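Appendix B. Chain record.
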Amino acid sequence: VGGLAVTTGLLDDQSRDVRRNAAWVIGTASRNVATVQAAALDLGVVNKLVQNLKIEDDVGTTKKLVLALNAVVQGLDAAEAKLVEIGGADVLNDLARDAVNGWRGAAVVEPADLCALQSKILTTATDLPALCGAGVVDVLLAPDCNTNIHREVKLLAFQSLSASCPALAARKAEWLTLLRLWLEEWGGAEAGSFENDLAGMAGRMLSL
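Structure tokens predicted for this chain:
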């Protein structure tokens, strides 16, 4: 806990590698450790992570910032309340739109890096449903990042958010169509396979 203030200060370093590593350290130290989460809240780490998510232009660093924010907030009611109070939902949804519609003016961004960022955004919204909004739903319904690994992340998000996210409810016809397409594709999957497990998840969602 003693080094948390110093590490948070490194989030403003000129080197993207330093910023990325600082975010990783904060996330690793905070996850499931209530004392570190409480200290992070007291030190203004939630505010700092949100502010940096508004301006960070390196995709890899942004992914680590999202992970750190999830780790600092998840399971600590006061931290989640603070995140909502300072507009964290708007920041995450703006970030989600950038991850789908073109990354913050960057000339070249590897598709795999954007897909990884999208997955972390969805995981965070799944863990913290209060953050779900139109941008998160855009990521959920985007046709890119369509491997079965990414589809699993999306299915978990659908399960968590379908009853609690008005923006997702408003586009129910679209996500039901998407699930039906996936289910059709997985129709011949062997019993016990990853695809068969995904088909089961999709089928349960369609039966609700």
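Further analysis of this model is presented in Appendix C.
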